Task: structure prediction
Amino acid sequence: MKSILSLWLAVCLILTACDDSGSKNVNNKLNNVNNHTNNITIDPDCTSVRLTSYTASNGGWCEFDRTLPVLPAFVRDGMTTAIAEPWNGGSYGGDPGESCGECWEIDTIGGSQTVMVHDLCPIEGNPLCAGAHFHFDLSTESAAALDTAGLDEGRARRVPCPVTGNVFAQILDWNQWGFVRLQFVNHRIPIRGAELRYGSEPEDTWHAMSRSGGAWAISGAPAADAGEPIFFRITSAQGETVA
Result:
């Protein structure tokens, strides 16, 4: 009887783990994100999440290195996750890729851990990531912190990423004809829009960047001169702008 009671208490803790105040923002309901069919509605302030795990590399579909020294220690320690493709637009329902760099707090019977979205679990070849249930494919490090194994379940809520310092750009590719491809890292809230300008241009001249997978890219912009600074302006999914 004692073991059954202990199990019941643990289950109750799991079911109420999201009651603390958190990211009480806009767009609190998500369904059919990115036009992928699913039959559930999730509340990013507190939702059931199905969990599996995989061996993550330092790079991922989101195209940032999770060992970058500017990232929080928990990310550098491997506390990352791949998000199921139907929710690749993030908790604010943006375009595919907006989930990259977003943070979620996950609670299981075995522990509680904040993780950052660093990779994608695609629909193709992965029935568990096809949209029947909100799903994270955890890095092995995250799974160990949460004491999960195989197919498991927990509760999740979105949280502002506990970062310090500035947002940084990791340059992925560029050429002398105005093509730049990059990823932004160390942001608190998912990024909805990005622009750039060169140091020689007027301060009100901005060139819009476009999503490129999990990253950002621009082509056809004026090419930068050698040593010329580049400035970025980013807009969060909550509408805040930083330049």
Summary: The chain has two domains: 23-159, 168-242. Helices lie at 2-15, 73-76, 140-146. The CA atoms of residues 41 and 160 lie 21 Å apart.
